[in-house]
Design goal:
Layout lengths: L22 E5 L4 H12 L3 E6 L2 H14 L5 E5 L5 H14 L5 E4 L17 H22 L5 E5 L22 H25 L5 E5 L14 H12 L6 H13 L8 E4 L9 E4 L8 H15 L6
Parallel strand pairs: 1-2, 1-4, 2-3, 4-5, 5-6, 6-7
Antiparallel strand pairs: 7-8
């Protein structure tokens, strides 16, 4: 485990380099970790694009950011990760508007204890958390791969450690357990990141891929979870295993902008169980480094989404 960027042994917003002239696209940038990530980048001069399903909330978030960062350029693009048609439309708008994208932060996520499906029939959590981001990344990758210093950061979770990918029942049609499906989607985020990193490197692209997790941050992701699950979170918070969204966003920010970060790395809080604290480099689960599983998930994601990568 890396112990920080400097002699203080911690990495904070003060370590974010100037971002003027850079374009950062953040999915789910209207709330929680995504909003704090967007705000911090806008304050350093980045042009920030909030890619969100709810345009009213995205517009309000943009105004909130601009109030904190006067003069910042913040705009919203409608993106519903649960609809491949919406993903393609959003990607088309991004490509038409920006000749370059410096940062793509795949932040949006959903946690559901009841089985739902996306517009394309995918299990909701796999569809939104992984497949939607897989498709979006592939569709805008040409705007990243020729941009020096560009990065794709995908937000995972400590929940991935309890997961495996059920390739024989990927959509949870035969057996569904809500949190297990969520954990599977978060493991998929890491398998995707590591495979993308390897393919980018092999292609000599100027883009690198990294992952992050926010620890036990206070966000809205559990708003649809059962009451008992939310109460567990409240108890964990009282035991010191929770932190603000601003602190949780530091892992995404470090993966996105730390000059010392390298492709294929994974960042998260340094505290007990990786739940709180300043971001450091972590090792993810042994399953996440399985190259066979990485390739298999990639190939299945191409089949399911119809999106191929320009690599």
């Amino acid at each position: 485990m890396d112990q920080g960027a400097d002699s203080r042994g911690r990495w904070t917003e003060a370590d974010i380099p100037a971002q003027a002239g850079r374009v950062a696209v953040i999915t789910g940038g209207n709330t929680g970790i995504g909003l704090e990530t967007a705000r911090a980048l806008a304050e350093r001069g980045a042009t920030v694009v909030l890619a969100c399903r709810d345009m009213a909330r995205a517009g309000a978030a943009a105004e909130q950011i601009k109030a904190r960062a006067p003069g910042a350029t913040v705009r919203a693009v409608r993106l519903d990760l649960g609809s491949l048609a919406s993903v393609r439309e959003a990607a088309g708008e991004l490509r038409a508007t920006y000749e370059r994208i410096d940062l793509l932060i795949n932040n949006a996520g959903v946690l559901s204890f009841k089985r739902g499906v996306t517009a394309d029939g995918f299990e909701l959590q796999l569809g939104v958390n992984h497949l939607g981001h897989f498709a979006l990344t592939g569709l805008v990758l040409d705007r990243l791969r020729e941009t020096p210093g560009s990065r794709v950061v995908t937000v995972s979770s400590v929940a991935h450690r309890n997961a495996d990918v059920a390739f024989d029942d990927l959509q949870g049609e035969r057996a569904f357990r809500g949190f297990s499906a969520y954990a599977q989607s978060k493991l998929a985020n890491l398998l995707f990141t590591y495979e993308l990193h390897r393919r980018l490197a092999a292609a000599g692209a100027k883009t690198i891929a990294l992952a992050a997790h926010p620890g036990g941050s206070h966000t809205e992701i559990a708003r649809n979870a059962p009451g008992w699950f939310r109460r567990v979170g409240q108890i964990a918070s009282r035991l010191g295993l929770g932190q603000s969204a601003a602190m949780g966003a530091l892992a995404s920010l470090r993966a996105a902008v730390d000059p010392g970060a390298r492709g294929g790395e994974y960042y998260g809080p340094t505290g007990p169980l990786g739940m709180t604290g300043f971001p450091v480099r972590h090792a993810s689960s042994a399953r996440s480094y399985d190259e066979g599983a990485q390739r298999r998930l990639w190939e299945e994601s191409v089949r399911l989404t119809g999106v191929t990568y320009p690599l």
